[in-house]
């Protein structure tokens, strides 16, 4: 999908709704059922700028209250209401979409962050639905090695601990 089309669609997004960035391919497959869930039949890989992702992380608030990160629940609720982005940590998934013992970041964008995502940060958009279906067929057929070779390369995001301190729950 051309970036200008994404920008047009983003202009139609509800201001109260969240646009979620899910950096993990397998977590996204869990969420959309390999592109088979109703209303989620198309899987897009959206590449955004490093500056944009960093801005969203810096301006994000945890989606849930975390003792030790927030002084109290009321402070967290005020921060969450003002924040243009929110973070939740969900279990990463394996090829069979079973939870793994570590978590992946999900980044929700609203208001200013959603507008900047569409207008400034988006670099490219690719339809990866055929890839999702191909990997899923291999998984269903029990060929996990071949399926794993087709997975997009993913690496831990290189930032210091202090950068994410406000997002550890």
Would you mind describing this structure in some detail?
β4 (85-93) and β5 (99-109) form a beta hairpin. The strands form 2 sheets. This protein has a 4-stranded mixed sheet with strand order 1-5-4-3. A two-stranded antiparallel ribbon has the order 2-6. The model is unreliable at 1-11 (pLDDT under 50). It is built from 8 helices and 6 strands; from the N terminus they run αβαβαβαββαβααα. With 169 residues, the chain is an alpha+beta fold.
Features:
globular; 6 strands; single chain; 169 residues; alpha+beta; two-stranded antiparallel sheet
Offer a quick outline of the entry.
With 169 residues, the protein is an alpha+beta fold.
Q: Which percent range fits the helix content? A: 40-55%
Poorly predicted sequence stretches spanning 5 or more consecutive residues: 1-11
How is the main sheet built? 4 strands, mixed
Structural class: alpha+beta
Overall number of strands: 6
Order of helices and strands: HEHEHEHEEHEHHH
- Gyration radius (Cα, Å) is 17 Å
Share in β-strands = 15-25%
Q: How would you sum up the global shape? A: globular
Mean pLDDT across the residues is: 88
Give the strand order, joined by hyphens, for the main sheet. Answer: 1-5-4-3
Distance between the termini: 35 Å
Helix count, DSSP H or I runs of 4 or more residues: 8
């Amino acid at each position: 999908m051309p970036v200008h089309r994404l920008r047009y669609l983003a202009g139609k997004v509800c201001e109260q709704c969240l646009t979620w960035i899910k950096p993990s391919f397998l977590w996204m497959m869990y969420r959309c059922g390999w592109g088979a869930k109703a209303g989620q039949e198309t899987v897009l890989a959206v590449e955004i700028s490093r500056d944009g992702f960093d801005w969203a992380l810096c301006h994000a608030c945890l989606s849930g209250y975390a003792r030790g990160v927030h002084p109290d629940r009321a402070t967290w609720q005020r921060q969450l209401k003002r924040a243009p982005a929110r973070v939740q940590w969900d279990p990463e998934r394996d090829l069979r979409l079973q939870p793994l013992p570590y978590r992946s970041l999900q980044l929700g964008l609203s208001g200013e962050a959603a507008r900047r995502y569409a207008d400034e940060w988006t670099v490219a958009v690719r339809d990866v639905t055929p890839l999702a279906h191909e990997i899923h067929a291999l998984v269903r057929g029990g060929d996990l090695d071949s399926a794993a070779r087709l997975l997009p390369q993913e690496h831990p995001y290189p930032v210091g601990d202090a950068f994410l301190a406000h997002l550890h729950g």
